[in-house]
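Hello, quick one for you while I still have it in my head. I'm working through a protein record and want to make sense of it properly. Would you mind checking whether the tokens look sensible for this chain? I owe you a coffee for this, so here goes:
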Amino acid sequence: MTASSADYADRAKRYLKAELKRAGVGYKELAERLTARGLQESEGSITVKINRGAFPAWFLIAAMEAIGASSLRLQD
């Protein structure tokens, strides 16, 4: 099976949404946490990034740190 970049973008989106849900953190709270860390984000900018699934690696790492996650589950 060959995966496309769209397949990986969809997986990244699903994984990040699942981790946010596990942490009980919504987009607004994530924006506040990232902004407090010096990364200016709004609820709207986060919504667009996550729904598009095309966010940079730094955003994924920053979001995971902001919610206190120490690992990312790569299985559905």
